[in-house]
Amino acid sequence: MERLDKILSNLGYGSRKEIKALVKAGGVVVDDKVVKDNGLQLDPEKSKIVINGEEIFYRKYIYLMMNKPDGVISATFDNRDETVIDLLYIEHQAFEPFPVGRLDKDTVGLLLITNDGELNHKLISPKWHVDKVYYAEIDKAVNEQDIKAFEKGIVLDDGYECMSAKLEIEESTEEGSKVLVTVQEGKYHQVKRMFEAVGKKVVYLRRIKFGNLPLDESLKEGEYRELTEEELNVLINC
Ligand code: URA
C-alpha cells in the first residue's frame, strides 16, 4: 500500500502540493469514487486510478531501448554534456531511470535504460555471460591472427585479461575494415582497447545487439521506445 499523492508524484503528475490541489478540485477518481483524501492508502497495481477523466497506466518499472546518438553521455547527470536521460520525455524521467552499462560519448546504437536495479545487475555482470555485439570500423586490415587473439583473450594496457571474444570480419583492406565483435563484459573503452592491443584503432563503434535483443533499426539516433513485453521476456531470459 502507498499514499495516493506519492504514487502520482512518482509517476510525474506533479508535486505533492499540486496533487493535493488536484484532489481537492475533484480531479482524481479511485475505483470509481471521487477521492477527497490525497493521503489515501492504496495498492496501485490493483486499483483503477482516473485523473481528469483519463485512466492512468501504472507500472513500477520502465524498460526503454534507445538508439544512442554520438556526443551524448551514458549517465544520469553531467555538469557539461547532455546525457541520455536528458533525451527522455518528462513522463519517463519521472521513473528515475538509468542506463544499463555505458557506451562511450562517441559510441552509437543500442542502449537500454531502466529503473529495474535487479535486471540491470544481471545484464551487466560478466558472470551471466550476456553477449553484447558491436559493429566496428577499424583503421587497418583486420586478419585471422586478430580473430585468434580475440578468441584467446586480449590483455589490455593495464594488464587486465579479457574473456574470450568473437571477432568476425565483414570486409578487410589496408585502408580499413568492417567487423563484428561480441563481448560478454563491459570494461571501460573495452572494444577500443582490445583493438589497440593488436595495434589498430576503432574509428566508428555501434552496438547492434544486447543479449538476444537486436537494435530496432527503425529508431533514428536519439530516438527511443519502450520494450514490448515479448522483448522484455527475451532480455530476462538471455
Ligand atoms: N567498447 C568501447 O570501447 N566503447 C563502448 O562504448 C562500448 C564498448
TrEMBL record:
Domain RNA-binding S4: residue ranges: 2-62
PROSITE patterns noted in UniProt: PSI_RSU, S4
SUPFAM superfamilies: Alpha-L RNA-binding motif, Pseudouridine synthase
Signal peptide: none
Keywords from the named record: Isomerase, RNA-binding
Keyword Plastid annotated: no
Gene Ontology CC: one annotated term: cytosol
Protein name (Swiss-Prot/TrEMBL): Pseudouridine synthase
